[in-house]
Amino acid sequence: SDPDLVERARAARAALGDRAFVLGHHYQRDEVIDFADVTGDSFKLAQRAAARPEAEFVIFCGVHFMAESADILTTDAQQVVLPDMAAGCSMADMAEIGQVEEAWAVLEDAGIAGDTVPVTYMNSTAAIKAFTGRHGGTVCTSSNAQVALRWAFDKVGGVDGTGKVLFMPDQHLGRNTAVLQLGMSLDDCVVFDPRKPGGGLTAQELRDARMILWRGHCSVHGRFSQRNVDDVRAKVPGVNVLVHPECKHEVVTAADMVGSTEYIIKALEAAEPGSSWAIGTELNLVRRVARAHPDKQVHYLDSTVCFCSTMNRIDLPHLVWAMESLVEGRVVNRIVVDADDAHWARVALDQMLALPG
Ligand code: 13P
Ligand code: SF4
């Protein structure tokens, strides 16, 4: 990156000192990660957001829903800044609170709302997390989806009972976790399409289901296919295929290992020198992992899949602008969740943070 800009970033970071705390998600660009005090997956960043209550500013290098969660979890005095407001998440955009409320009304009409626990993936708006808190559910991330689902099913009679989970908004994480980790069958899962009346399902289909999956997905991970796994296995004998659980069921089933971004990093740290890996997740992370392990062969699962375009919105110019503005006393791009939503979203986030490790 531009050496002048790096110099300005260093100067602004030094001027802010302990007044600022910079968090960076693993999908961020190298030029941004260089300035992060803590890097992590979305769970670790939620845990760490509140780690520096004395810092006036929490600069969140990640996407909007993560910064909202940081605002909810930090003190009222702390201000959370997202260096580019256009850093959203296409998956989070696939569920709007109005649609979720309508979906719940459909479950009520089918007579199953009382027997259903909402579980929302971190990748959702604060309003949906608040809905989840109000209805006795929990937030989860890709690193604790299994415990979150077990906890939710335990509230309504256990995994082997008849209770249900409404899982939003990532159908793949919900399906992969229910089938591969909880032992449910694909037939236990139905997809609720918010664009269709009644979700596109009959009341009987809803009553028969155990996992009601929101029709949402990640545009980056949705592009990996089983073909990619077959191709890399043919090309690289003995390769270990490691993918994120936002990938389609066929991909996760064909892979050797599945886990969050933090899990992927740890798996490579623990890997034998000389071993070969094909990783199915966002490209900034895969490139960094490859660079960190020159003694291991790291392949990208599909060379045509690119970066997460919204994660990439946060670049050094935006970070410099945000930090220099704070140095000059102007708080730009502050993320504020309204008090009522913040209260109930916190209930659902605290529930996640209290799940057994
Ligand atoms: P992690 O929870 O693994 O960090 O994933 C977040 C995300 O947005 C993946 O697309
Ligand atoms: Fe959202 Fe996918 Fe980007 Fe993660 S990788 S922030 S789920 S669009």
Keywords:
357 residues; alpha/beta; Rossmann fold; 3 domains; 5-stranded mixed β-sheet; 5-stranded parallel β-sheet; 15 helices; globular; binds 1,3-dihydroxyacetonephosphate; binds iron/sulfur cluster; quinolinate synthetase A activity; iron-sulfur; 4Fe-4S; pyridine nucleotide biosynthesis; metal-binding
Q: Would you give an account of this structure?
A:
The protein has 357 residues and is α/β, with parallel strands linked by helices. It folds into three domains: 3-90 and 311-336, Rossmann fold, CATH 3.40.50; 93-218, Rossmann fold; 221-300, Rossmann fold (3-Layer(aba) Sandwich). 41% of the residues lie in helices and 16% in strands. It has 15 helices and 14 strands. The strands form three sheets. It has a five-stranded mixed beta sheet, sandwiched between helices. Strand 10, helix 11 and strand 11 form a beta-alpha-beta unit. Helix 4 (64-73) crosses helix 15 and helix 6 packs across helix 15. The longest helix has 15 residues, at 339-353. The structure holds 1,3-dihydroxyacetonephosphate and iron/sulfur cluster. 1,3-dihydroxyacetonephosphate is lined by residues 26, 41-43, 123, 141-142, 218, 246, 260-261.
